[in-house]
Amino acid sequence: MKQANTYPEHIRAVLQLGLPLVGSQLAQIAINTTDTIMLGWYGAAELAAVTLAFGLYFVVFLLGAGLAWAVVPLAAAAAETNDTTQVRRVTRMGLWACLVYCVPGMAVLLSAGGIFQRTGQTAEVAELAAIYLRIAGWMLIPGLMIMVLRSFLSALELTRIVMWATLGAALLNAGLNYVLIFGNFGAPELGVRGAAISSVVINAASALALVLYILRKLPDYDLLQRLWRPDWAALGAVFRLGWPISVTNIAEVGLFSFSSFLVGRLGTVPLAAHGIALQIASITFMIHIGLSQAATVRAGRALGRRDGKSLRRGGKVVIALSALVVALTIVAFLGVPKLLMGWFLSPDDPQRVAILATGTLLLACAALFQLADGLQVVALGLLRGVQDTKVPMWIAAISYWGIGAPASYVLGFPLGLGAAGIWLGLVLGLTCAAVPMMHRFWTRGVQQLP
Known about the structure:
It contains 16 helices and no strands. By secondary structure, it is an all-alpha fold. The protein has one domain. α2 packs antiparallel against α4.
């Protein structure tokens, strides 16, 4: 991609790189949204169960995904200097790191029943969530492989294939869900088991498709060359940059999973409403994630060529685009909450009115933290691009778990605000993370380049 100099050129460059990444993130969340919608139509208990299961799965998945995301800034900086060997090295060792991580990760997912029972969930919901993860846990392996390959392609600014592959997976998942959850076209009615089987199959097919594309279209990188041989220097680089990203991931996503456990103690209706509201907020968050990933690539390439001016201008452009998305999201959350929530529930569900009432209140809380959420994830993307991950990790850990989690518990239970109080605690934690992260990028991140 041509180097950007003016602000219009930076906007064009970020959109050209970022829109396919946004599209791929939206397609990825569409897979989970499809599961949520279809299981919401199947039954409230199934919806509540998968809400819990998704919460735990994403904690485990994103803890490993930090190792995959470390490939982006390392490969981007190497690609800027046309060092194809280094790009291949860090990508191969990213695969190594993620596959090794899958051993303990899958052990947690496949034995999750005891975790759910000890967190105060109802017996039915806990059992259904455990059933789901005993199958869906196997998608951790292809899921993390996909993350490494997407990181490799994103670093090379080949993001359209990432979008189309993910979109195809989302469409296939919807069709397979329709068959397996409800038992259509002569298939057995499998409920949560059907959703889990569909997720595993689609992730495995997507990983295979990306491998075949890379081998055919990018033979110069010879990505699988001597894959079985360790490269300790490259593995060390991936690990040093990746483990703080993993901890940062777990700090944020773990906070939201913790909120699901807290809301689950309030009953099935609040948990179902929480799951829907969280799914809607996650959809809009994917736009910011896509912009953040574009920021990482652009910042990584600026670092590779030691271009401080480009880093600063690119940072301003990404922040402005994220703020525009925030403004539109707030209007939607406050203006048509019941319309957004209604897609996830059957018109005949006897608990529909109660779930919509609670969910509308939660979307109002989600509108409050949109700005902070967008700013913190864009700041993280920029900091990762300049390979600054350790201090942001500490900021995230303190903000989310030292402030956000305790605030959610206190507001939700001792102060009696229920699910809304739990969400207001999330707002506080996100805000406390966003401000120092953004400050660090502008005072430290840009200072290392002329």
